[in-house]
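Budget justification aside, the reviewers requested a transparent look at the raw inputs and outputs of the sequence design task funded under Objective 1. We therefore reproduce one unedited record. The lines immediately below are the structure tokens for a 89-residue chain.
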């Protein structure tokens, strides 16, 4: 079952998810806006892909990801214990 982070009303239309069936990929969240999707590394809060450009993401949303990083890491580690964010967890 995918995990979706609850976002404040200021981010209406945006979604942050950990999708199903991603156990072989680097630990990441997917930030969604309409048809666009950004994969953001949970270790570094940096994009994993070149497209779509990160400049299209609101800086406040990236800041929220940093603030909620522990929650997202815990959710990833629960979903994919064989591929944890770090070996210290």
């Amino acid at each position: 079952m995918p995990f979706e982070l609850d976002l404040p009303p200021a981010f209406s239309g945006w979604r942050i998810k950990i999708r199903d069936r991603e156990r072989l990929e680097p630990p990441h969240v997917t930030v969604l806006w309409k048809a666009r999707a950004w994969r953001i590394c949970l270790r570094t809060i940096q994009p994993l892909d070149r497209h779509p450009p990160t400049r299209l993401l609101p800086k406040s949303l990236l800041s929220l990801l940093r603030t909620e990083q522990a929650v997202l890491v815990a959710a990833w580690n629960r979903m994919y214990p064989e591929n944890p964010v770090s070996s210290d967890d």
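Residues 3-79 form one domain. The chain has a mean pLDDT of 94. Computational costs for records of this kind are itemized in the attached budget.
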